[in-house]
């Protein structure tokens, strides 16, 4: 049989009808333990921390979407980041994207040093700077692309070409999803997702996953998954499995609406900057076109008027809920400096450009006119209320 398409695999992989009952949908195996035929003789499962049929179906589904054979599901995106880094040991070194997600920064900077693991943050858009950051003990390159929240694009293949034997490239692919970008095809060794976001897609479940096509790497991560036990329960696995079935449909709508939002914001004189790789004005637009099949559903921007106006805009929107997270069917707006990146030191945020005037939008799949209209209303009201804003 020819290779099945993306949407077909999302709906079919790991989801054969139940052999015992004929159930078309993978059941929720809400059990802690499994009865054994005799001591040491099982039907493949003995305890749900070590393995659960609902979770296995999710792992097979998401691995296939990334073009891989193996996956390990975790109870949150940060548990998955930690799981991906379980290949490290004391004395190892990470080269990481300088503007990683705030939770990842906290893990790398405040937790890992306790265990003798050091991290260098570098502008990975600068290949020579990335090369210069490599040490003799570098074990892992950690990439986010598009980055959060400024949507910078990193050349995965170029970074992967820098690695030496014994070094690995991990990519947080949460923003792009496997529908728009498949890092393993570009030379990455590991792919991580916060499945809370687009893969689950409905803002009703927290989870994470680490995917690889390398059996040895997967064995190390799966050992950590079982040993630490930060696994999703069967209901969480079921909700994520169900959500991912519609990923192709949802991502097309997210991107279509995000393009409309980015173009609208870009047309406004009272908007100082728009960050979206689908805009031709984006400095990494051509790289995004080569590396990705589409540009995703997240848009960030800075209104003229500074932090005061930005916060008023965030309070005034009605279609865009003021909330942390992204990737659900509903539109969200947040202030990264205090919300998603609150754990990053103030001086570092200022250096990265994550300042109080920056707003991040997770563009949902509501009607385009309603989404754009909501932003237009918030921008117009705040502009009219503060005519002292300097409009460039």
Question: What attributes characterize this protein structure?
Answer:
392 residues; alpha/beta; Aspartate Aminotransferase, domain 1; seven-stranded mixed beta sheet; 14 helices; 36% helix; 15% strand
Strand content: 5-15%
- Encode the helix/strand succession as letters: HHEHEHEHEHEHEEHHHEHEHEEHEH
Q: What is the CATH superfamily of the largest domain?
A: Type I PLP-dependent aspartate aminotransferase-like (Major domain)
Which blocks of ≥5 consecutive residues have pLDDT under 50? 388-392
CATH architectural group of the largest domain: 3-Layer(aba) Sandwich
CATH top level label of the largest domain: Alpha Beta
Mean of residue pLDDT values: 96
**If strands are numbered along the chain, what order do they take across the biggest sheet?**
1-7-6-5-4-2-3
Radius of gyration: 21 Å
Count up the helices. 14
Number of strands: 12
Secondary-structure class: alpha/beta
Describe the biggest sheet?
7 strands, mixed
The overall number of domains is 2
Q: What is the straight-line distance between the termini?
A: 58 Å
């Amino acid at each position: 049989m020819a290779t099945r398409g993306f949407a077909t695999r999302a709906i079919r992989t790991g989801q054969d009808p139940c052999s015992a009952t004929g159930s078309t949908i993978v059941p929720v195996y809400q059990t802690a333990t499994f009865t054994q035929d005799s001591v040491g003789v099982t039907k493949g499962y003995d305890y749900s921390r070590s393995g659960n049929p609902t979770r296995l179906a999710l792992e097979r589904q998401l691995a296939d979407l990334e073009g891989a054979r193996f996956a390990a599901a975790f109870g949150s995106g940060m548990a998955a980041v930690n799981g991906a880094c379980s290949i490290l040991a004391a004395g190892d070194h990470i080269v990481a994207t300088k503007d990683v997600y705030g939770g990842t920064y906290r893990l790398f900077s405040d937790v890992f040093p306790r265990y003798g693991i050091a991290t260098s943050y570098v502008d990975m858009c600068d290949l020579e700077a990335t090369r210069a950051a490599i040490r003799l003990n570098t074990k892992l390159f950690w990439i986010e692309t598009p980055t959060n929240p400024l949507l910078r694009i990193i050349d995965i293949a170029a970074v992967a070409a820098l690695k030496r034997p014994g070094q690995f490239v991990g990519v947080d692919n949460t923003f792009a999803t496997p529908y728009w970008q498949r890092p393993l095809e570009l030379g990455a060794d590991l792919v991580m997702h916060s499945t809370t976001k687009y893969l689950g897609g409905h803002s009703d479940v927290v989870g994470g996953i680490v995917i690889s096509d390398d059996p040895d790497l997967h064995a190390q991560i799966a050992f950590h998954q079982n040993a630490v036990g930060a696994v999703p329960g069967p209901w969480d696995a079921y909700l994520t499995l169900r959500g991912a079935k519609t990923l192709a449909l949802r991502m097309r709508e997210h991107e279509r609406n995000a393009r409309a939002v980015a173009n609208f914001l870009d047309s406004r004189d009272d908007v100082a900057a728009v960050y979206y790789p689908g805009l031709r004005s984006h400095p990494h637009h051509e790289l995004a076109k080569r590396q990705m099949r589409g540009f995703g559903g997240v848009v960030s921007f800075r209104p003229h008027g500074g932090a005061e106006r930005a916060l008023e805009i965030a309070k005034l929107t009605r279609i865009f809920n003021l909330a942390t997270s992204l990737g659900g069917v509903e539109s969200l707006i947040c202030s990264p400096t205090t919300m998603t990146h609150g754990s990053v030191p103030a001086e570092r945020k200022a250096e990265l450009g994550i300042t109080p005037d920056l707003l991040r939008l997770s563009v949902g799949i509501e009607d385009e006119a309603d989404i754009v209209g909501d932003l237009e209303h918030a921008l117009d009201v705040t502009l009219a209320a503060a005519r002292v804003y300097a409009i460039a």
